[in-house]
Amino acid sequence: MNKIFDHMGVAVRDLESSISFYLHTLGGRLIDRYRSEAKGVESEIAIIDVNGTRTELLMPTNNSTSPIARFIKQKGKGVHHIAYKVDNLDEAIKDLKRQGIRVMEDTRRINKHGRRLIYLNPADTEGTIIEYCDYPHNQ
């Protein structure tokens, strides 16, 4: 199954300052900005494109339940996850399970852009949070 880099998620404390850096210093373009209060997300998100490479800036909206808040508390701000686009998310999950790689079923969802996604268990990925995603409506 093909896997290509899709985006990087970055946990931030100050979304305005982070957007400014990505736009003015890196020359990026703001693609979208929205707030998600969905369980397991609870963040304000800005999607930035820098010369065809996307970064999601993730600022927690609930410091007691947001996984981004928990991440910042444990590890500080910075790279939260790396996402890989797969041809078919359902098939990719089956392939992972055949290899003994666990996925975090409670993270499976469809975001506002129609991206289906799930996170792999960091215990099986050398500690890196990895997202697999596909875009079934854009194919």
Automatic annotation (TrEMBL):
It comes from the Bacteria. It holds the Pfam family Glyoxalase_4. Keywords: Metal-binding. The keyword Metal-binding applies. Residues 4-135 form the VOC domain. CDD domains: MMCE (cd07249). The keyword Calcium does not apply. Belongs to the methylmalonyl-CoA epimerase family. This is VOC family protein.
